[in-house]
């Protein structure tokens, strides 16, 4: 009996330790200090903002992928861009070890292949957004364009709406986190999903 008690106590404390250390690791990246926020003026206004999600300390976003619902056809409900994922690395151009972060994500579509900066990190972005369609089918954000330390990366999103202006450019090393504005499913056949995004820059 005594041996059994000892054993179960060991198992329980061992479990507690692993849970705590995993928790601390994710907290640290969420609370990572950032230098500035990048915003664009043309984001959609439906939905609510998710949590800020940051790359692990010491890493910066060098690539991204999108969750996109392909056009579903006339008189159907298109949602277009549903999510953005940042892929974070310590060293530019070393892409075999990376961490992925995302804020809130809509429920439609599939994730596109990762696009990586030719060199450096992501430093600015531009959003393609469809204006409110009145009684028509609203899609809000459709696509995103990123500027890298060198070169630009074009998302594999959809083509409704217009490109806005560039965000400011990171003064620090690069983009290190994001927060998305997502409209939850409306249940009445006109969903927009992702509306807007804020990117964070770190030194």
Automatic annotation (TrEMBL):
SUPFAM superfamilies: Vitelline membrane outer protein-I (VMO-I). Transmembrane segments: none annotated. InterPro entries: VOMI, VOMI_sf. One of its GO terms (cellular component) is extracellular space. The keyword Glycosyltransferase does not apply. Pfam families: VOMI. Residues 1-21 form the signal peptide. Keywords: Signal. This is Vitelline membrane outer layer protein 1-like. It comes from Cyprinus carpio carpio.
């Amino acid at each position: 009996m005594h041996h059994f008690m000892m054993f179960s106590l060991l198992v329980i404390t061992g479990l507690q330790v692993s849970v705590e250390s995993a928790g601390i690791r994710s907290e640290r990246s969420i609370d990572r200090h950032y230098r500035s926020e990048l915003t664009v003026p043309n984001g959609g206004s439906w939905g609510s903002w998710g949590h800020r999600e940051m790359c692990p300390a010491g890493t910066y976003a060098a690539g991204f992928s999108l969750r996109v619902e392909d056009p579903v056809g006339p008189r159907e409900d298109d949602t277009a861009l549903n999510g953005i994922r940042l892929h974070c690395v310590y060293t530019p151009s070393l892409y075999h070890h990376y961490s992925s972060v995302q804020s809130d994500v809509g429920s439609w579509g599939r994730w596109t292949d990762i696009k990586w900066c030719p060199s450096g990190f992501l430093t600015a972005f531009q959003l393609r957004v469809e204006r409110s369609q009145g009684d028509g089918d609203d899609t809000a954000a459709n696509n995103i364009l990123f500027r890298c330390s060198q070169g630009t990366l074009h998302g594999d999103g959809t083509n409704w709406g217009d490109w806005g202006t560039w965000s400011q450019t990171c003064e620090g090393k690069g983009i290190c986190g994001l927060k998305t504005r997502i409209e939850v499913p409306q249940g009445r056949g006109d969903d927009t999903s992702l509306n807007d995004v804020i990117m964070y820059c770190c030194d």
